[in-house]
Amino acid sequence: MVQTVFEVIALDATDATAAQAGGADRLELVADMASDGLTPPVSTIREVLSATDLPVRVMLRDATGFAPGDLSALRRAAADARGAGAQEFVLGFLDAAGRVDEAACAAVLAEIEGCAWTFHRALDNSADPLASWPVVVGLGCDTVLAAGSPRGVADGLPVLRDLAARQERDGVAVLVGGGLRLDQVTGLTAAGITGFHVGGAVRPRGWEGPVDAAAVRTWADEVVNVL
Predict the structure, then answer these.
(1) What global pTM score does this model have?
(2) Average pLDDT in the chain
């Protein structure tokens, strides 16, 4: 049977509870969506882990863009998150030329050795997403969150289809997110995608409002029915 992953962005324990009630498979825990998602406080990590038994992937990112703001501080944040009980993470860095910053990634990964993790949409923003893919795979992630384009899924479909064809060979799953629409799920599934990631799509009041369990259920049912 095909393993599907339907991941929902959570900002707090309220979001986590609603996402689980709606049928999410996993959470991505972040803070400050005005900056496209930064590392959440340790207190929030603990609260979310206590509120749900879903897998929770904690964002490790301390600045807008795709370069670490303070790599030493980010390493400490990773260690603190792990100490708070986090076992899964999300990260990814680029250098000034738009290449995957392997050294920065490796420095943070040293703090979470043995944990499952996702390389996030830094791939979409790299100078060449397809050329960056094998570099990312070599870092040891089990998932890559991608839209195929910095502009979102609608523009990134050709790249996503190419990445989908590489999943089985490379042992890394593509998790599609970034402006993902419900009507795109069927076509992506036909291309071999089984992982879907949403944030604002399950928040009827936008990022100022909480995750809505009914909206999560609509997405969860679509993913299950299509597959």
Answers:
(1) 0.96
(2) 96
